[in-house]
Amino acid sequence: MSSPSPSGAIAGPSLHSSPLPAAGQLQVSNGAHFDVVIIGSGAGGGTLARHLAPTGLKVLVLERGDWLPQEPQNWDAEAVFQQNRYVSKDPWLDKHGKTFQPGSHYFVGGATKMYGAAHFRLRQQDFEQLAHFDGTSPAWPLRYADFEPWYQKAEEMYHVHGQRGEDPTEPPCSGPYPHPPVAHEPRMQKLVDDLRSAGLHPFHAPSGVQLDEAHMAFSRCRKCNCCDGFPCLVHAKSDAEVLGLRPALACPNVSLLTRAQVKRLHTDASGRTVCAVELERDGEPLTVSGDVVVVSCGAANSARLLLMSANDRHPRGLANGSDQVGRHYMFHNSKAMVALAHEPNLTVFQKTVSINDWYLGDADFDYPMGNIQMTGKTNGTIMKGYAPLETFLMPGWSMDKIAQHALDFWISSEDLPDPNNRVTVTGSGQIQLSYTPNNLTASARLVSRLEGLLDRLYLRQHLVERQFYIANSMGIAAVGHQAGTCRFGSDPATSVLDLNCKAHELDNLYVVDTSFMPTIGAVNPSLTAIANALRVGTHLVERLRG
């Protein structure tokens, strides 16, 4: 808002959406030392930087990417989904040695720049040992109650909209959502009404957007259809750049170095302390150091950095005396599913409905199945981007016609932690991801439940004679929900990190991203990463200021 100038005139609005950092905050000299060096600026690193900023601690954030440009292509479906304009080139290898390009996004804000801002808490049962049809999900070393206060703070920091009491699997919460739920548009409200008539408990999906529906003229978010999978052109999505790094840089003690790819971490002679962070910026080598070094590169890249930092004291990689670094990679059994009906779906902002009635099973299948939520509204260009081979011969206009009648679902089931699903690195530092799917029965049952439900609803309502489905499974290139690889725990023989996410084998090395998660549940991991960053950040303040 504008404010009166000293002369009494009304000042115009600021030219900037956030305070401009001083030039010195975006430059770092070789050999510079900080209280905390954070490697990565996504949900973990960006949140941690903001949490530490008011303490006066000298903080440096290193981001291998640059600022994602605000440009018309941000909201261009062809540029985003078909041309992969914002996918960062970083080819990985699969377990057979075949090269593939993961859907990685290396920008300030990390993967949150492109996420759908769906901020679910893990269920209380996700922290306990849980029997699945194809195996067991182990208990966490901490319980839901240990994370609940941090979940509450995470929802506040990331402007989460929702409604308590609608979801039958909702865990205990210490307070309401900080913002009211995002309103259903007419077709979504009808879907909700139909689901309730069938005995289900659909609920408002928890959405991280800077939205004020009561005062839309003053709302940053416009409820457009370019949220899920797009970068937000107007910075209204609650991502780690907008709500992490930019607020952090308002404090002069925080610095950010972009285009800074960390190559390895060096330890002192004892092997107990990280004494130097070796990086390359615009082709030039640079070294910095910190009293505390925090790795927050995402599950795969955090494991890569630790493995690449092997030395005489840590011959298998930093923090890897237990040979656990890189193991237990998880990313969900997920499907993007389009249900087509005769009735048109004119919804614009579709991500307002979620279903957890089958999250923990039902009367006919006594095992967890997972979560169902809506995706952003599909159009023909997006559909061709998801399934280019299947739709190659179909013209864009025909795909648009199909999309006008689509209900677009995201179906997510838990994949179980398997030590053989792991990240390793080649001699050149390239990631090799060896992954074999598991717990597929639960995923198939969840898809079947949704298909059967929609068929019954639409037949009962006489909307269509039969429902037609298009499902696209997310392969290993879909890395948005990656987790595991540096699990935390009390036993150094079976975990990489202690309960504060400090490496068991080093005194000043922490990992603060989804790497720490022993299991992944069946909901988006972003809020858990944010909550954990706040939890660990408070520990770091006590350590460094105590």
Give a written overview of the molecule.
Helices cover 21% and strands 18% of the residues. A hairpin with a 2-residue loop joins β5 and β6. The protein starts with 32 loop residues before the first strand and ends with a helix.
Percent range for β-strand residues: 15-25%
Class derived from helix and strand content: alpha+beta
Total number of helical segments? 10
User: What number is the mean pLDDT?
Assistant: 93
Number of strands: 21
- Report the radius of gyration as a whole number of Å: 23 Å
How far from one another are the termini? 38 Å
Shape: globular
Helix content: 10-25%
Low-confidence region ranges: 460-466
Q: Largest beta sheet, briefly?
A: 7 strands, mixed
Which properties best describe this structure?
single chain; 546 residues; alpha+beta; 10 helices; 21 strands; 21% helix; globular; FAD/NAD-bd_sf
Summed up:
The protein has 546 residues and is of the alpha+beta class. The protein is built from ten helices and 21 strands.
Question: Secondary-structure blueprint of this entry?
Answer:
Layout lengths: L32 E7 L5 H8 L6 E4 L14 H6 L9 E2 L5 E2 L29 E3 L2 E3 L6 H14 L2 E2 L24 H12 L5 E2 L2 E2 L32 H8 L5 E4 L2 E8 L6 E8 L2 E12 L3 H10 L24 E8 L12 E3 L15 E4 L5 H7 L9 H8 L2 E8 L8 E4 L5 E4 L5 H21 L7 E6 L35 E3 L14 H20 L1
Parallel strand pairs: 1-2, 1-13, 2-10, 13-21
Antiparallel strand pairs: 3-4, 5-6, 7-9, 8-15, 11-12, 12-13, 14-17, 14-20, 15-16, 16-17, 18-19
Helix pairs in contact: 1-5, 1-10, 3-10, 7-8
Keywords: FAD, Flavoprotein, Oxidoreductase
Family: Belongs to the GMC oxidoreductase family.
Protein name: GMC family oxidoreductase
